[in-house]
Amino acid sequence: MPQTHDAKSHVGASLKGRRVFVTGHTGFVGGWICAALNALGAEVAGYALPAPEGRALFHDLDLANRMTSIEADIRDTDRITTEIQTFNPDTLFHLAAQPIVREAYKNPIETFDVNVMGTAKVLEAARGCSNLASMIVMTTDKVYRNEEWVWGYRETDSLGGSEPYAASKSACEQVVDAYYKSYFKPEGIAVAAMRAGNIIGGGDWADARLIPDAVRAFETGAPLVLRNPTAVRPWQHVIDVVVAFFLLSDALNGNDQTFHGGWNIAPDLEDQKPVGQVATDFASAWGPEAQVKIEKDDSIPETSILRLDSTKARSQLGWKPVWSLDTALIETATWYKHAVSGSNMSDLTDHTIRSAVAL
Asked: Which residues pair with 232 in a beta bridge?
């Protein structure tokens, strides 16, 4: 029988006061995780490419002055090895990646290099850490072989990937599994992969993503243009991912190897909605001036229906979504409207984390 994690204590209790190394800390999800780790009282070091000038969550949260920030490429073997082994973390979160599907189509070699070989280099560096107890690698809902099922993929379903981004993340998980079985398991180090759906929340300023594209359009008075409005995706707030990382870390740090492997983090079934519906609901949360326009574009093939089943995380980790999608969209619109008006986003984000998560 699989073990069940006791989630009654505060989320992330095993990380308080511990050393946590985060790759990809200048990105959207990495930024939220680092902010939550700070709130938790962990000692945090991050490794990533520099955040873009201008809009970036890393700047919004002033993370450069709140943690150790190392700006470098994970493909730099000597640098990533030196930085990880010098910090010698208790826990390692690997989120650095090339995360954009359209960019992967344009630059497949770079995408495979970053997502597959970059992950291998992080894993190889981690092998030399004497204090390391656990590691979580962020992947995606797209790691599964595309069957166009109307039901959610489960962790027991086959991995695959019919386009460069999906294939690179599926291959990334194969590398993680090989390293775990060959090196980490014999040393008693627990390793897991987190598979999340379409993550929304304040501070994502990337191109070619629904919510940041909407924000850029709405604040200039332009309509949001949708290219594939009928595609169904599992939408969830970034807070859900933060909680999942912390709960899974607590389980892994309990030295129980049954928690290794892949974990789906997904919203309730009713919140796995078409792009067009989510865009319309976000526009409503933004205000009456926000408009949505459809211009179909089938030049890049995408899965029509992609759902995840997170029964495993709910039953074994005690994880569940913090907010419904409706609430998540309102919270997200509120965050961006504050950012556009020049508010202190570090304070607002910390307040959101503390009010939503029992740290």
From this structure: 274, 305
Domain ranges of the chain: 16-203+235-266+308-323+344-356
Q: Which of 84-88, 145-149, 165-169, 227-231 has the lowest mean pLDDT?
A: 145-149
User: Contact at 8 Å (CB) between 266 and 236?
Assistant: yes
What is the rounded average pLDDT for all residues in the chain? 93
CATH class of the region 16-203+235-266+308-323+344-356: alpha beta
Whether this model's pTM surpasses 0.85: yes
pLDDT at res. 359: 75
> SS3 string of the chain?
CCCCCCCCCCCCHHHCCCEEEEECCCCHHHHHHHHHHHHHCCEEEEEECCCCCCCCHHHHCCHHHCCEEEECCCCCHHHHHHHHHHHCCCEEEECCCCCCHHHHHHCHHHHHHHHHHHHHHHHHHHCCCCCCCEEEEECCHHHECCCCCCCCECCCCCECCCCHHHHHHHHHHHHHHHHHHHHHHHHCCEEEEEEECEEECCCCCCCCCHHHHHHHHHHHCCCEEECCCCCEEEEEEHHHHHHHHHHHHHHHCCCCHHHCEEEEECCCHHHEEEHHHHHHHHHHHHCCCCCEEECCCCCCCCCCECCECCHHHHHHCCCCCCCCHHHHHHHHHHHHHHHHCCCCHHHHHHHHHHHHCCC
What are the backbone angles phi and psi of residue 16, rounded to the nearest 5°? -60, 125
